[in-house]
Amino acid sequence: MKVINYLVCLLSAVFALSPSLASAQQAGATVSYQSLTELQSLAESFVRDTVSSPIGELHVKAEPLDSRLHLASCSGKPEVFLPSGANLNSRTTVGIRCNSSATQWTLYIGVNIETETPVLVLSHAVARDTQLGAADVIVDKRRVAGLSAGYLTDAGQLKDHSARQNLSAGMVLTPNMLQPTVLIHRGQQVTVLANTSGISVKAEAVALSDGAVNTRIRVRNIATAKELEGVVDSASVVRVDL
Questions:
Q1: Domain with residues 182-241, CATH architecture
Q2: If pLDDT is split at 50, 70 and 90, which confidence band does 233 have?
Q3: Considering the entire predicted model, what is its pTM?
């Protein structure tokens, strides 16, 4: 529905003339049109100013406007805004409107965002479920779509993570390419560490489900057969708070 509303507004700006503009044309007066290049520059500047502390060099480019678009010149500076629900993704939509006493129009411009920044790049192909580490990546400066927050930039971010799918050499890594590595498997014998009243208790148990680091799983105490829920701490330790 939002997309339809945007298109309606855009079509209105393209094909409809403001009353003052129509009157001026009928009277044979010289009509002044808004510079499309200026509108594109306004949209680009707005995006640059909206992005706070970008990591890397920001590249912003507004999509070209149709040269057949004729908008009456705005007597004041047009207002630039981010439409409701819009986010600063690799391609975003910026609104520009004129609300002067003589002229009213609203226009939406597509803006492409890229960032040139150091990112993690796979040095070789890896198969699905392969645990990743510093030896599997290099840090390389690349121009990537969107903001750098959507990419991995430090090998420390790979800790306890594996490939969610088969990945090719040279791929720029993003968080959705990774999954927490399963450290404990169902049926595996583990050590349960419990803290109660300042006293640490250790017991042997069997895992009742798979678990990645910091995920909760149930275990069964081997000696008492009691089931407990704890948090995976490492490949053999589950911590339980009693």
A1: Roll (2.30)
A2: very high
A3: 0.65
